Amino acid sequence: MGWVPSMKQTRDPGQPATLRLCDVSVGRLAGISFEVPAGAVATLGGPSGSGKSRLLRAIADVEPHGGDIYWRGANQSECLPPEWRQRVMMVPAESHWWFDRVGDHFPEGVEVDYRAVGLADATDQWQIDRLSSGEKQRLALLRAITRKPEVLLLDEPTANLDPDNVIHIEQWLRAIAIEQSIAIVWVAHDPAQAERVADCQLKIRDGRVLAS
Questions:
Q1: Cβ-contact 64, 57 below 8 angstroms
Q2: pLDDT tens track for 19-49
């Protein structure tokens, strides 16, 4: 096996902070090319089964695909997968939990603002098995943000939330994208949500991704 450079070694700080897909293919999708700059939100829509989640997994480097994907000029194929996934982070529709207590899922020594997602300060002591699906979804988003990603790939991040929390999390994520210069690709089925959060709306049609 040849030497594989790390992202730090291949990353050119002079390159623009842009997520760029060039002729990507995965599953039934082909010829996918688009860009999302840092601080912007691109929503991704399309019928169920059209390949939205698979495309996110390809961008996160957890599913084989064709074509090239770049972040800040670094090609995904030239980066060590753990380093790529630290910077280009996916939050799936169903979050995974390994420990019994909420707080054990966050980096040690990092102050976690549970109130940012509408939860109490004492949430870190809660048991995972007492959480609702909506609480898990909000905590999964907060967990990702505390790891300082540069790109966030969100698979229906508000699907399990009540209307008030949907608006709260939308506003929080939009603010985080701008404040921390995070590029976000957000799978959204609700056209009204896409209108509220997106700088650019992407839609899958006939195996292609089109900007609207």
A1: no
A2: 999 999 999 999 999 999 999 999 999 999 9
Residue 23: left if φ>0, alpha if ψ -120 to 50, beta else—which one? left
What pTM did the predictor assign? 0.90
Burial per residue of 102-127, b for 16 or more beta-carbon CB atoms within 10 angstroms, e otherwise = beebbeeeeebebebbebeeebbebe
- Other beta carbons less than 10 A from residue 39's beta carbon: 17
Q: Give the pair of three-digit tokens for residue 51.
A: 């390949």
Closest by CA to 141, choosing from 122, 127, 160, is 160
55 CB-near residues (< 8 Å, 6+ apart): 24, 26, 29, 32, 44, 204, 209
Neighbours of 184 (CB within 10 A): 25
Cβ atoms within 10 Å, residue 29: 23
Beta pairing partners, 169: none
pLDDT digits (tens, 9 = 90+) for 184-197: 999 999 999 999 99
